[in-house]
Design goal:
Helix content is 35%, strand content 18%. A hairpin with a 4-residue loop joins β11 (278-286) and β12 (291-292). By secondary structure, the protein is α/β, with parallel strands linked by helices. The strands form three sheets. Strands 1-9-8-7-4-2-3 form a seven-stranded mixed sheet, with helices on both faces. Strands 10, 11, 12, 13 and 14 form a five-stranded antiparallel sheet that branches. Strands 5-6 form a two-stranded antiparallel ribbon. It binds pyridoxal-5'-phosphate.
Length: 349
């Protein structure tokens, strides 16, 4: 099912480990391939990125209030602003956003690619950053540029993979095959801990050799490939097939969009953004200037607390209230969920 070329898999049990594995594999690949490039030791990552809570994944993450405390323990990462569609830099329009953000990446790669092992990206949607949606074509452009400048591409699909954005993999939507792809969460339907790092044959080949050459990927993990978790993951794939989950999603996705559209004219709703089964409503103090509410006013949390009274437990990311329901949710449940969110916004704002 995976994007073509990702023929090898390393299993672990949580998303952060899948990212650690990808980072280490990328690093080791450059040292062990036929034409070694040992100076490639750093990574490009995005502001607001979230890749897990272990130190390697935190190093490439960029959510200050989760990560600032551990700064002295982290390795250096080259950071780019998060590509997005709502708060665009001055002078950038919806039409020019993709090329603007790609130019930023290209300038960085042109200057630093000699020492860059990989670009690490949450494809299409940066979750913990506030469900920021990348402008169309950005991911495809990143793939082109990483090839041009000989840098690996690590796609962290832990949140956006396994059907979440309406296709099995987010990368599919822009015809991209990354060099390494991380999966977790929905891989086992969320029931048992299982994650995976998929790699191309090109990467795999760099780890082959005589025993004494020590080209092994030394990342031992007690529960990697755990049979019970694997059974849950296989059963999840069976459900995708039996219930035609992906084929049913467009109706569910449309239903969410129809409900949330009713919030568009609300004076404190700055943006409604959706990609597949992730939908977010961004609350603002001033709609024209896009001025956020002060974080300590807990506006998002207040909306969610009100929604709870209507039977839906949703979670805010600051001033962003989002829906990320199970793919199996029924249309009736979508109606209830959206109704609870809309009432929450109306009541508290
Ligand atoms: C994009 C992304 N990467 C990595 C992770 C970490 O996964 P885990 O919590 O299983 O370690 C998450 C978890 O929310 C995530 O959203």
């Amino acid at each position: 099912m995976a994007p073509p070329g990702l023929n090898h898999v390393f299993f672990a049990s949580d998303g952060a480990s899948a990212v650690e594995v990808a980072l280490k594999m990328a690093f080791q690949y450059w040292r062990q391939r036929n034409d070694p490039r040992p100076e490639k030791t750093t990574y490009v990552a995005y502001a607001g990125a979230y890749h897990g809570d272990t130190l390697g994944s935190v190093s490439v993450s960029g959510v200050p209030h989760f990560h600032a405390m551990f700064e002295p323990l982290l390795f250096e990462t080259l950071r780019l602003p998060a590509p997005q569609t709502y708060r665009l830099p001055e002078g950038v329009t919806a039409e020019s956003a993709t090329s603007h953000y790609l130019l930023e990446l290209e300038e960085l790669l042109a200057a630093e690619s000699r020492r860059i092992a990989a670009v690490v990206i949450e494809p299409l949607v940066q979750g913990a950053a506030g469900m920021l949606m990348h402008p169309p074509g950005y991911l495809r452009g990143v793939r082109k540029l990483t090839r041009k400048y000989e840098v690996l591409l690590i796609a962290d699909e832990i949140a956006v993979g396994m059907g979440r954005l309406g296709t099995m993999f987010a990368c599919e939507q822009e015809d991209v095959t990354p060099d390494l792809l991380c999966l977790g969460k929905g891989l086992s339907g969320g029931y048992l801990p299982m994650s995976a790092t998929l790699a191309t044959t090109e990467i795999w080949n760099a780890f082959l050799g005589d025993y004494a050459e020590l080209k092994t990927f030394f990342h031992g993990h007690t529960f990697g490939g755990n049979p019970l978790a694997a059974a849950a993951a296989l059963a999840t794939l069976d459900v995708f097939e039996e219930e035609q989950t992906l084929a049913r999603l467009p109706e569910t996705i449309d239903r969410i969009a129809t409900h949330l559209a009713s919030l568009a004219s609300h004076p404190h709703v700055g943006d409604i953004r959706q990609r597949g089964m992730i939908a977010a409503v961004e609350l603002v103090q001033d709609k024209t200037t896009k001025t956020p509410f002060p974080w300590h006013e807990k506006r998002g949390m207040r909306v969610c607390q009100h929604a709870l009274k209507h039977g839906a437990w949703i979670r805010p990311l600051g001033n962003v209230v989002y829906l990320m329901p199970p793919l199996a949710i029924s249309l009736d449940e979508i109606n209830r969920l959206c109704d609870a969110l809309i009432r929450g916004v109306d009541k508290t704002l």
